[in-house]
Write a structure and sequence with these properties.
Elements (H helix, E strand, L loop, with lengths): L3 E5 L1 E4 L18 E2 L5 E4 L4 E5 L4 E6 L12 E4 L3 E2 L8 E4 L2 E11 L1 H12 L13 E4 L21 E6 L4 E5 L7 E8 L5 H4 L2 E5 L13 E6 L3 H5 L5 H6 L1 E11 L4
Parallel strand pairs: 1-11, 2-7
Antiparallel strand pairs: 3-8, 4-5, 4-11, 5-6, 6-10, 7-9, 9-10, 12-13, 13-14, 14-17, 15-16, 16-17
Length: about 260
């Protein structure tokens, strides 16, 4: 079932925390700043993925919260700090329903991207069928249809440059066109020495659009390879014809980090 888009994710503050009152520091390390949320994604009835632009989290509710998967949800917590250890005052709220939050887990960009990608494939990470996936957004600037997958994809049209770090590719993109992300790590399925010598790369998407690490996505060097590298057998026929397979894509820097 296609992903459905909802309205803005409301970032609510508990009663008594008036906007005029100076906000206190986070109660503990690892708390999520609900006021900074830029995207939130309900994976199932217990789990919500949160992106604040500079950090990513998995939020777990104490009980099943089915309404959060098919309607707009809000985060309700004192002064907007969600820490996962105060279920009596931290909630996911959907209409009149409040679901207590029992855990907040920081996620790496890679883990966050992998979980959303698997959800978009219609199954959970353990391979079992999952619910129809829904995305909710805290802020919704006009980023076009590509917004839903910027957590684990980039659009080749907005690539500004690339380089290698000896193992993977680092791809510079337009932050405005990539959900605020301006640098992606592109993991490769094998060693690709041709990238060290190439001057230009073409990205090929198995879906005909975004590069997401789906089977069949690959990067191919277009020019700049010395003839002796190929003639001398340094590059295999497979490398020169099939390109470098891409197995994972995830942002490693956002314009919000600056």
């Amino acid at each position: 079932m296609p992903t459905r888009y909802l309205g803005l994710l409301s970032l609510l503050v508990a009663a008594g925390a008036a906007s005029a009152v100076e906000r206190s520091a986070a109660p503990s390390e690892g708390c999520l700043d609900a006021r900074a949320v830029v995207q939130a994604r309900a994976v199932d009835e217990h789990r919500l993925l949160i992106d604040t632009g500079t950090a990513r989290y998995a939020l777990t509710t104490a009980a099943s919260c089915p309404a959060a998967t098919d309607t707009a949800a809000s985060l309700l917590s004192p002064q907007g700090w969600v820490c996962g250890d105060r279920p009596e005052v931290e909630f996911v709220q959907v209409g009149a329903l409040r679901c207590a939050i029992e855990n907040v887990e920081p996620l790496s960009a890679k883990a966050f991207a992998a979980e959303i990608r698997e959800a978009d494939r219609g199954r959970s990470l353990d391979g079992t069928p999952s619910l129809a996936q829904v995305e909710v957004q805290a802020k919704a600037p006009d980023r076009g249809r590509f917004l839903s997958s910027t957590a684990y994809c980039f659009d080749p049209r907005w690539v500004r440059g690339w380089r290698t770090d000896g193992k993977d590719m680092l791809v510079d993109t337009s932050a405005r066109r990539s959900g605020g992300n301006d640098l992606y790590r592109v993991e490769l399925g094998r060693s690709c020495p041709e990238l060290e010598l190439g001057q230009s790369v073409t990205f090929h998407s198995v879906t005909g659009g975004a590069i997401c690490g789906h089977p069949g996505d690959h990067a191919k060097v277009q020019r700049g390879l010395p003839a002796e590298m190929i003639a001398g057998g340094v590059l295999s026929t497979r490398a020169s014809t099939e390109g470098c397979p891409i197995t994972a894509v995830y942002p490693v820097h956002s314009s919000n980090d600056s």
